[in-house]
Amino acid sequence: MKNILITGISGYLGTRLTQELKQRNHTGKIVGIDISPPGNDIAENISFYKKDIRDPEVGELLVRHQIDTVLHLAFVVKPIHDLKRMHDIDSNGTLNILEQSLAAGVNHLIAISSTLAYGAHADNPEVLTEIDPLRGNKTFPYGFYKAETDRMIQAFADKHPGMTVTILRPCTVFGPNIDNYVSRMLFLPVTVSIKGYDPAVQFVHEKDFVNACLAALEKKSPGAFNLSGDGTLTVREIADILGTKVFPLPAWFIYPMLECLWRLHFPMIEVNRGYLDYIRYPFVSSNEKAKQELNFTPQYSSTETLLDTIRNR
Questions:
Q1: How far apart are the first and last CA of the chain?
Q2: pTM over 0.90
Q3: What are the phi and psi torsion angles at 127 (to 5°)?
Q4: What is the pLDDT of residues 34-87, one digit of tens each?
Q5: Which segments of 12-140 does DSSP mark as H helices, in order?
Q6: 97, 262 in Cβ contact below 8 A?
Q7: CATH node for 2-176+203-229+284-300
Q8: Over residues 199-206, mean pLDDT
Q9: Cα–Cα separations (whole angstroms), residue 237 to 9, 193, 194, 243, 282
Q10: What's the CA gap between 44 and 30, in Å, rounded?
């Protein structure tokens, strides 16, 4: 029986994961921390504490509830204008979870990173594997901080081999109920692209993401694992499926325009110019390692994930 603490339990993916864990007989206690309380659909039979991941009192909770496994999901997903605060939460918050887990004797920590940590660059290989360097684009804070915290977690794992550390790197997570800034941009009336570029992109279904987390819990394999649905789609193919019109704009125009709108807090503008690199350059990842070592078998391809997302809007 595993006693599990989940950071970011009130988020959508934290909620989905908790729902699945509560149905499994080998789970003992489920403890959750978040800055917002969880919904009624998961609140029953869990211990919830309203806490920031930077709070040193997290360690006391780990000891009190005899936690042996930590699932670290908490991260500032939607870009915010206060970059100093965003970095403090993501970097120092993650460091606090690592250090408190070590001090409390946690034996397995699963941290959620992202394929955005590889960065979107013109010289990326056709398919990125777990041994490729993490070069998250500095102009897009989410990807840059994911790369930074991922490297921090790897260094921590190397220094403390007694704790099993698993890093999961999902690509963009979609599904029937997902609601994030990427999905909101997806359903805008028009699709904006960068003139001369039409890179391949990947999606992973929310069900497959949750199943991968559960597989990581059971397998307890150390190291990093990319999570993605099989196959890819281009930006133009996505627009064709959605039935939206593509407006290719030159890079010299769209980059400063988006940055200006972002700084002005313009309605519906949820990303800064750095996000444009991720629809300009490829960052396609291989899921072969997860398939071989975690028995990760995605039920949905990238195309099927997109279709299931559209069907339920």
A1: 38
A2: yes
A3: -135, 125
A4: 999 888 777 788 899 999 999 999 999 999 999 999 999 998 877 788 889 999
A5: 12-22, 40-43, 58-64, 83-87, 93-103
A6: no
A7: 3.40.50.720
A8: 95
A9: 34, 12, 14, 10, 15
A10: 10
